[in-house]
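Regression report. Comparing outputs from two consecutive submissions.

Submission 1:
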Amino acid sequence: RNNVEGLKVISGERIWMEWKKILVGNYAAELTLKMLELGLGPYIGLPANPNLQEFERVWKASQAKNIKLNPTTLLAGLLANEEEVLDLHGRLKMSGAERDNAIFIIEHRQDEPHPDDPLRTYQYLQ
């Protein structure tokens, strides 16, 4: 907690590389929440008030269904809009695909799946 400001001098690419390893691990939610509790959020590009409820909901749902999520999919749970994704991308220098994946998830988070085919909603996106 006392040394959190030291993250200012660590490259965003390095932070993202290490955080991705955490996000695919067995304790992704616990470690990420502890990082936020210790005040790392602003230094790693997160908004002042990350969406902790959505992050935990996504994590619990993936665990209940035994699904391994892409790190960006889980990370998107902390973000509310495209601006927050772009701010995070500016700090972490994620790949374009990772950035676009997070934006896609946020834009379509509230979509209702088709009752017969859950993927149909997304098959016709342009």
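Submission 2:
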Amino acid sequence: FSFILVQILTKFGLSHRIVLEGLKKGNTEYLTYEECEERGFFQGLFDDRVGRLPKLAKIEDQKSGFDERLEVSCQGRVRLENILDQTLTTQNIFFIESGPKETISGRESCALESAYRESGLHVVMVRRKEYLDLSDNTTCNMYHRTNQNLSILYADFASLAKGTRMEGFFENPELGSSPYNYTHTADAARVLLVYKYGGFYADTDYVILRSLQGIENVVAGDDVSMEVYNDNCQIIQGGVSNAMFHFDRGHQLLTCAMDQLMTGYKPDSWAGNGPLVLQACLAKICGMEDTVGDPAQLTSENMSRERCEGVQLLHYESFYPVGWRQVEKLYEDHLPRVWELVFDSSHAVHFYNSQTDKVKQITREKKKKTGVNEPALLTLARKHCPVSLYSVDTF
């Protein structure tokens, strides 16, 4: 059985001992784990290397709020409270809906529920639309579970940006006519929210697995398919992603990001106003502007708290155990124990719902079978967001 697990992990690119013959990127030849081990690196201390997060104790005191059965009326529309009328601490995890819809899907609900159960933070969903449609079962279920640890709020982003460096951005005609309007609005809004309030941001296609308390000023890369190393035997962490991050309120990296969005907005670039902006600003505060185009420099050691004004580029497994180029692997069927091993070093898992051609639905029949081969999302949802999982027929 152990041999089978190793083979599966190797197929994922998650075994630390993958042999890659002549692996290159452009004209750069990278090293394998074995080659670095032969040079005397690691010495069996893999989990102690830079960029790894500690596994904190699980949060138990918030879970009861989700396990209670609700007897509520699910009909009509409800008007959400405005975020500008709220008093928020810095201990938040924000989720954003930048589109016009008035419902919360099962998977979006899972992101909120898992964050509520596991993160130890105040969960805040911020929505561009002022109303929720409670005739939708999942939406109704989530709305009626809001309390001091879970908020669903309305935000007029133009008003939210007043008095900041982003004032006027959301009224930009180029943003309004962009084919990526909703994506770019969310890209900018996450920077603005964390700048104003502080805390985590995460996309609504995440499942949160562990406590996020005490984790500050961190980003990670989502483009690692197989572990490879530079000449210093440092894992190349892939391009910086903006799908999940933490920054203190008013952090200088976010100031940099807002300035770039205001002066260099790219309406026709899907990623040019999100992850690329975050990566450029990280390189700037790390003093690496001249080398950020070299993938071999994107390591946790080079982009460490000591070098980057307190910001740490985490090991990719922290938030992206499976890279975006391998999203289909998340929907392969494996035993729950296999998925537990795959995500053993992760605090959250991203499911890349924007890749609609690769994302698969989980049917009611699939949910009924337990202890059998199943996709990663089903294994994680059973444990971390069971209410959301069973609030819809097809998840």
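Expected: both submissions complete independently.
Actual: both completed, but the second showed a warning that disappeared on reload.
Relevant detail on submission 2: The first strand starts at residue 24 and ends at 25.
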